[in-house]
Amino acid sequence: MPNLNFHPAGRHFLQIPGPSPVPDQILRAISYPTIDHRGPEFGVLGRKVLAGIGKIFKTTQPVVIYPASGTGAWEAALINTMNKGDAVLMYETGHFASLWKKMAERLGLEPEFLGLPGIEGWRRGVQNDLIEQRLKADTAHRIKAVCVVHNETSTGVTSDIAAVRQAIDAAGHPALLMVDTISGLASADYRHDEWGVDVTISGSQKGLMLPPGISFNAISPKAMEASQTATLGKSFWAWDEIVAMNSNGYWPYTPSTNLLYGLSKALDMILDEGLDNVFARHQRLGEACRAAVRAWGLEIQCVEEACHSPVLTGVMTPDGVDADAVRKLIYESFNMSLGAGLGKLKGRMFRIGHLGDCNDLTLMATLSGCEMGLRLAGITLQGSGLVAAMEHLQSTARPVARHPEG
Amino acid sequence: MPNLNFHPAGRHFLQIPGPSPVPDQILRAISYPTIDHRGPEFGVLGRKVLAGIGKIFKTTQPVVIYPASGTGAWEAALINTMNKGDAVLMYETGHFASLWKKMAERLGLEPEFLGLPGIEGWRRGVQNDLIEQRLKADTAHRIKAVCVVHNETSTGVTSDIAAVRQAIDAAGHPALLMVDTISGLASADYRHDEWGVDVTISGSQKGLMLPPGISFNAISPKAMEASQTATLGKSFWAWDEIVAMNSNGYWPYTPSTNLLYGLSKALDMILDEGLDNVFARHQRLGEACRAAVRAWGLEIQCVEEACHSPVLTGVMTPDGVDADAVRKLIYESFNMSLGAGLGKLKGRMFRIGHLGDCNDLTLMATLSGCEMGLRLAGITLQGSGLVAAMEHLQSTARPVARHPEG
Amino acid sequence: MPNLNFHPAGRHFLQIPGPSPVPDQILRAISYPTIDHRGPEFGVLGRKVLAGIGKIFKTTQPVVIYPASGTGAWEAALINTMNKGDAVLMYETGHFASLWKKMAERLGLEPEFLGLPGIEGWRRGVQNDLIEQRLKADTAHRIKAVCVVHNETSTGVTSDIAAVRQAIDAAGHPALLMVDTISGLASADYRHDEWGVDVTISGSQKGLMLPPGISFNAISPKAMEASQTATLGKSFWAWDEIVAMNSNGYWPYTPSTNLLYGLSKALDMILDEGLDNVFARHQRLGEACRAAVRAWGLEIQCVEEACHSPVLTGVMTPDGVDADAVRKLIYESFNMSLGAGLGKLKGRMFRIGHLGDCNDLTLMATLSGCEMGLRLAGITLQGSGLVAAMEHLQSTARPVARHPEG
Amino acid sequence: MPNLNFHPAGRHFLQIPGPSPVPDQILRAISYPTIDHRGPEFGVLGRKVLAGIGKIFKTTQPVVIYPASGTGAWEAALINTMNKGDAVLMYETGHFASLWKKMAERLGLEPEFLGLPGIEGWRRGVQNDLIEQRLKADTAHRIKAVCVVHNETSTGVTSDIAAVRQAIDAAGHPALLMVDTISGLASADYRHDEWGVDVTISGSQKGLMLPPGISFNAISPKAMEASQTATLGKSFWAWDEIVAMNSNGYWPYTPSTNLLYGLSKALDMILDEGLDNVFARHQRLGEACRAAVRAWGLEIQCVEEACHSPVLTGVMTPDGVDADAVRKLIYESFNMSLGAGLGKLKGRMFRIGHLGDCNDLTLMATLSGCEMGLRLAGITLQGSGLVAAMEHLQSTARPVARHPEG
Predict the structure, then answer these.
(1) To pair with C364 at 20 to 30 A between CA atoms, which of B258, C342, D48, D141?
(2) Three-class SS of chain B
(3) Which D residues 162-221 touch C at CB under 8 Å?
(4) pLDDT tens-digit profile of B171-196?
C-alpha cells in the first residue's frame, strides 16, 4: 500500500465537503467478508438498506441504489426519463450544476442553463421566479425536466426545493423535477415526497458518511412512468429491473456488497441519532463556522442568509491572495484538507466541510487550522474566528452523552 | 448490522464463481480512512493502481477503472464505441453472453447471436469457424464489433481469444473485438495486446479478489479512435476525460477510493506471487476439481477438454435431481455457498468456484462439502471424488512456503 | 509489518490446539478504538463481560480477568492461595502439567508430581484413585492444593474433574482443588461450581476464540478465604482489589481494553450458539478426526476412550518417522500449521486442533492436508482417513443454517 | 458489542494521559489473524519487535516484552531482583509512585518513601539531593534499589533521571536504579544505557500508541546479575527464560501476538518519524498547552519549569470548583475524555493528555473543549487559552507533509 498520509503524526483532518470522514464503525462494517449476493443473508441486508434509505429521502417510493459513484446517478436520472434532443431546464448554482449540464449535453439532450450572470448566481440559491417565468414561456411544453442542485457543493449554497416545486406548479408545467442532493442528503432536511420531486439524486460519500462508490435515485411514480417510454438506451442504469428485483432485497446484477454493509451501519447511526438531530447539528456547526469567517473579516461565498449551507462554508480570500496556496500551506502545516475553489471560483475561495461525522471539537480544530494558515499566508484578520465560533458553540451547547441507562 | 452468516460457527466457504473470498489483507486495506481524491496522497495511489492494472491485462494501452460494478463495464465498452443501430456479432457461450446481448439491445444496438443450438453451445467454447464464416459473409462490413466472453461464468468454459482474433483477421473484417473476461482476469492467462483485443471488460470481484464495485475497460488505439466519433450518448462511461485525467493519477469525478485501496493491495499480492504462478495454481485446482467430478460419475458442464475453466467447474446433477435443492442442502448443512445453474441450466447444474484466494485445502474442503451433500441428497456416486482430487493434488504438490531468508 | 504468511496464496489453516483461528467478527471487535478505562462506556463493557464470563465457567462466583496471558493465570492461582513451602499435589498428564509443576517450584512451593510412569501417564486421564490414595496418606494435611489439568493440550486427553473432586472428598481432605482448563473452556463442558473447583484457570486463545493476552481465575469462596491469609507476595495477581473494583465493571489498573472488546463479542457468539451446541459440535468434530486417524492405521495419543479430547487429537507417527518433519512438510506444501509433540513426545506425534471457530469443512480440509502430508512423507496409510471422517460427518449432519425468520 | 461511544455523532477526543488514541494503522495491525507463535512467521515478527524496541529505550541490553499490562512490569522489576524484606528507596512524585510503593509492600519488600511533604512533592520532580543524602546515610547498604517515576502521569511532572543516577553515584551506593517511564517512553527523551538505569519499566498504551496489554522491562547487566540470586518466587515474570528464548524471536509461553503486530507497526511509525522529531513534537504541544492554561489564569500542577511534562498537563481548578464535575460536563457536552485528579489531587485538578498520535489541530480541539467546559462550569477565565496556544503553534509551525518525491 502506498502511504496514505504524508504527515508524520496525528490524525488527518479531512474537512473537504465530501468525501467526509468515514466513522470507524462504518470502515469496519465495509471490511466484513463479502458474501454471496444471491444467498439468504444478502436478502436480509438488501431489504434492510432498501427500507432504511427511504426514510432518509423521506419517501415511500422506490429508491434505486447503484453500485456506481454519484456522477452515475446523475446520468441514471437523465437516461431513464429523457429522449434524444429533449430540452431540460437546468439552473446554474455553481460548478456541479455546470458539470451536470455538460453531462446532459454529452447524453444528447438540449439543456438550457438558467441563472444570474457571472459569479452572482454562484452566491445565491435557485431564483424560483426565473424558473417560473421560463416555464410559463414554454407553452409548447418542450422542456421535459427542470434540474436543480439542492446543496451546491462548490459554493455552499442550499436552495429551497419546495419553492422550485411551487414555481413549476405555478407555471402549470408538466416538466419533471430532478434534484441533485448529493451533498445535501442526511445533512440538510430533504423531503422527496412532500416536495414533489420526481427524481432525487444522491451519493454515499457526504452526509451518509460512507466512502464513495454507491449512489441513489429516488423515483416518483411520474418519473417511473416516463421511464417506460423514454428512448435513450439504458441498461445498467435502467430502473425497471432493479426495482423489480429489489422487492426481495436482491439486484439484477452484482451490487456493491461491502459498501452496502457500510450503508446498513450508516442508516443505523443516522436513524439512531434522529434525522432532526442530525440536521440541527449540521445547522449549528454551520452557524459557528460562519461566525468564525465573519470574525476574520472574510467574505462568505453565499450571500443569501436563507441559503447558507449546513454542509460546507465557502470562504473567499482577499483580492490577490491565491486560495489554493493557502490550502496547500494549511495541508502541509496542519494536516488538514480543505476544498478548493472550482470553476469560476478557482483560486478565489476555499471550502470548509462540516458535514457528516463532525462535532464541536472537530470544527474547532478545523477553524484553528484555517485561522493559523490564513495568518501564516500573510492575511490580516480582523479578529479571531476561533473565539467567535467558540462563543456560538458554548452558548448553544447541551450535554448530549447518552448514558447506558438513558 | 444484520447477521451476515446464518451458520452458528466456523468460517463460511464462499465457493461461488465470484464474488470470490476476499483475503484479510484486502478487507483491511479497504477499511483505511477515505482520503481527499484531489490530494497528493491520492495521486500516488492512482498512479500506482493504473500502472499495476496494465500488467494484469498485459497491455501498455489505457485501462479505465470505473467506480461501478462489472455490468457497467460491459455498457461502457458498447457505449463508447458504437452507434445507434450498429450490428454487433455476439457469441452465445452461456447466460452471461445472453445478458450482454440483452444489454446491447437495450442500448439500441442490433446484436446478432451466434452459437450452437440449444444447450450444446453452453458446453463448448467459442467456435471460431462460425465467426470467421459469418464475418466473411458480411461483405458490407455492417458488423461493427465481435463480442465474446473469455471465461463464461455460467458454464465453466474458457474460450480461445487468440483464435477469435485469427478468425476475424482471416475474414479480413474490420470489426472491433470486445472480450468480457470479468471472471477470467487474473485467474486464466489473458493478453489484451498480444491477442489484439480492442476492448477488454473486467471486474473486481473474481480473480482480483476484491469486493464487487469497480470494473475495467482496457482499450486499444483502434477502439479509442472509434470512441471519438461514436454517437451514443456517453458521459459517466466516456473514456476521453478519464484517460486524460488518469495521466496524473486522478479521475474526473469521485473514484471509489476505498476499493482502489483494495486494488492496490491485490496488485501487490498477485504480482508478488507472479502471474504465471497464479495461472498454474488455478489450472491445478481446476484439474483436481474435475478429477473429483469424474470420480463421482457426474458430468462436467464443459465437454471440450481444451476449454475447461481454471476458475470454476460446472457440475451437472443426474436427471431428475434438482441442483438447487442440492445446493440448499449443502448451504444449510455444511456452511458453503455454491453457484446456481443459470438460464437454460437452472436447476440442472451447480457451479464450484476455485478462483482467487484459493488453495489446496480450501478446494478439498469444498469438494468434501459437495460429496457429502450429493450423498445426503440421495445421489449415488460412483466413487469418492475427494480421494481422486487428493491424488492429483498430492502428486503435484510442491513446498511453496517462502521462508524469510528466501 | 513483516509478512505474516509465507505462503503465496489462500487462507492459512491454523490447526494447532491454540491459539485457535480468531473469527473475523472478533478481530474486528478488537480493532475498535481504545476508550477511557475510567469512563462510563467502559463500565458497561466491564459489567457485560464479567457477567458473561461466569456463564462460561458455570459459576456464580467471581471470575477475575487478567490483562496477562494464560501462564499468568496459573501463577495467579498459586500466588493468591499458597504459602512458601506449601506442598501441592500435581498430576502429570503431560507437558503442560509439567510446566505448571515447574512454575510451582519457581514460586517456592513444594509440588509433588503424581502419575503413571514414563509416557503412560501422558496417554490417559487423571487416575483419581491415585489422588485419593495419596490424600488419605496425608493425614497431617500438609498438602494444600490438588492441581490438575482438565484438557491436556500436549496430548489430547481430557480428565474427569468431577471424579477428582470425589476423590478429594472421599479422602476427606481439605486441600484446594485447582484446575487448568486453559484449552478446555468453551470447547468441553466445564462446571466450576457444580464440580466444586476452588480455582479454575483459563485463557483466551482457545475455545474463546480470542487472540492470546487475557486469562482467568474463577474463584470459590474457600479459595478466596485462603487468599486472605496466604503470604506469598501478591500485587498484580491479587484477587481482592480486582474483585472489589469489578463490582462496578472497572479494574484497579489498566485492563486490556481491546481484548475485552473481543471477549464481549466472543461471549455473544458462544452464548448465541448455546454452550451445549458448542460442546456437541466439538465432540462431533473430535469423533470424525479420530475416525480418520484410525482409518490411517495410526495410533491416537490418548488411549482411554472416555478421555478423548474434543479440542485436539494427538497423532503418533510410526516408529522412525520424525513427526516434526511431517509437520514441516505439511506447513510448506499445504499452508497448514499443526501442533508439535512436546516434552517426552517431541518428534513422536503431532497434534490436530479442532477447536473454537471450526466446522465440518475446516476439519475436512485439515484432514486432507494431514493425509497428503503423511503420504508425501513416505508413510504407508491403511486407508483414507478422509473418507472415514466424511462418513461420520455425513451421517451426523443436520441443517444448521438459521434463516432470518427462524 | 455494547455501545462504546455514548455520544450521538463525531469522533471522541480521548485526551487522557493514556491510553492514548490508537492510530488507525495500529488498530488494523492488531486485527490481523493470530498466527502460530511457534511458526516461522512469528520468529520474524519476534525478532523485528525485539530489535526495534531497544532503539526506543536507547539500549543494547535485553528488553523483555510481557504479555501483561504495565502494572505487571512494575511487579516484574521488583520480583526479578529483590529479596523478601529488602529495603527499597522510592520517591513520591505522585499517585503512581504511591501505587508502586504499595505494590512493593504487598510483595514483601520494605519500601521507604522519600519526598517533599503534602502536596508539594506532587508539584515538583525528584529532588536528587534528598536521594543522595539518604543513600549516603545508608552506610550499611541496606537499600537495594532506588525507584523513581520518570514521567509521573498523575501530575504531569517529568524528572531528570540522569541526575538521579548522578545522585546515586555521588553517594557511592550500589543500589539498583529502577525507573518507571510507563507514560514517558516514546514521548519524552529516555536513555536506558546512557543514564545507567538498571531496570526501566514501560507500557504500551502511552507514547507507543498501542492499546494496553503489553509491557516492558529493559534490563542492565547488573540487574540481570541480581536476578540470578534474588529469591522472591518468580516464574511468569522471570527474565532468564524469556531472554533466552528471545534470541530466536520466540517466547517461553504464549505471547500477546496481536498486540505485537501493533508494536511492529508502532515501531515503524515512530522510527520513521524519528525519535527526536517525536520528542520535539511532544515538547511543542506541551508548551502550547501550558500557554493556554496560563492564559486562562489557572495554575499548572507542575511548578518546576524544567520538569513540565511533554506528555500531559495537570490543570488545577480554582478553589471550590470540583474538577471532576468540570470533566463530566466536558465529557457530556463536547465528547472529550480528560484525566481525573488522583489520590491527593482528587477533585482538585484535571489532566490533559497531549501524547502519542497527537498533532496541532487535535490539541486545539482539546483546548477548545476545555475552555468551553470551564466557562460552562461557571469559572471566570482571564483570557482565551485557545488564542495563546494558537499563537505558539502558529509561530513555530513548519510544513511537515512529506511529499512522495521527498
Answers:
(1) C342
(2) CCCCCCCCCCCCEEECCCCCCCCHHHHHHHCCCCCCCCCHHHHHHHHHHHHHHHHHHCCCCCEEEECECHHHHHHHHHHHHCCCCCEEEEECCCHHHHHHHHHHHHCCCEEEEECCCCCHHHHCCCCHHHHHHHHHHCCCCCEEEEEEECEECCCCEECCHHHHHHHHHHCCCCCEEEEECCCCCCCCCCCCCCCCCCEEEEECCCCCCCCCCCEEEEECHHHHHHHHHCCCCCCCCCHHHHHHHHCCCCCCCCCCHHHHHHHHHHHHHHHHHCHHHHHHHHHHHHHHHHHHHHHHCCEECCCCHHHECCCEEEEECCCCCCHHHHHHHHHHHHCEEEEECCHHHCCCEEEEECCCCCCHHHHHHHHHHHHHHHHHCCCCCCCCHHHHHHHHHHHCCCCCCCCCCC
(3) 203, 205, 211-214
(4) 999 999 999 999 999 999 999 999 99
